[in-house]
Every structure is written in C-alpha cells, then in structure tokens.
Amino acid sequence: MKALATTRMSSKGQIVIPENIRKQLNLKEGTQFVVVGENDVVIIKTIEAPIMEDFDNLIQQARAQAKNIGLKKSDIKAAIKKARGHE
C-alpha cells in the first residue's frame, strides 16, 4: 500500500518528507531530487548520478560510428572551434 502523509512548507520554501515515506523509499541524507511543478501539482522524483561504467558502451558505440565514417580528431577540433565562433 502506498504511504500517505501531509507536510507543510517553511518560510524558506523547505518541506519535510515524513519519516514513514523516507523509510518506505529508503531515502537518506543527501538524496537528490528533481522537482517538477505545473498548475497545482508538484512532483518530487529521486535521481542518482550515473555510474561511469554506464557510459562505456555508449563511448564504444560512438567511437565505432566515428571510425566507420572516417571522423578524425582534427574534424572534432574544427567543429568545436566553429561552435565556439572561432572559425
């Protein structure tokens, strides 16, 4: 069953997540959240920093695609210069 609780916002805009919900969701000090608000709805969603190993496959795929099209380091440097307006 989903936990239900009420809370209030402080004068500094802070809210306390009630203890029963913190325990149910295993929320610890330092947990990061993304907050989305629209009309009268506020959604607070936990987020975690990605682990570098998660990027290994993406990096391998990007390198393979770059190799397949013949992309060189000099091409990348030129693209960065162009994007920064230093042509």
Write the layout of secondary structure elements.
Elements: H1 19-24, E1 32-38, E2 41-47, H2 53-69, H3 73-83
Antiparallel strand pairs: 1-2
Keywords:
87 residues; alpha+beta; Pemi-like Protein 1, Chain: D; 16% strand
Tell me about this structure.
The protein is of the alpha+beta class and 87 residues long. The chain has 2 domains: 1-49, Ribbon (Pemi-like Protein 1, Chain: D), CATH 2.10.260; 53-83, no CATH class. The protein is 39% helix and 16% strand. The chain is built from 3 helices and 2 strands, in the order H-E-E-H-H. The chain has helices at residues 19-24, 53-69, 73-83, and strands spanning 32-38, 41-47. It has a two-stranded antiparallel ribbon. Strand 1 (32-38) and strand 2 (41-47) form a beta hairpin. The N and C termini lie far apart (60 Å). The mean pLDDT is 90.
The major beta sheet can be summarized as: 2 strands, antiparallel
Number of strands: 2
Spatial strand order of the main sheet: 1-2
Radius of gyration: 22 Å
The percentage helix is: 25-40%
Number of domains: 2
**Total number of helical segments?**
3
Task: Give a short overview.
With 87 residues, the chain is of the alpha+beta class. 39% of the residues lie in helices and 16% in strands.
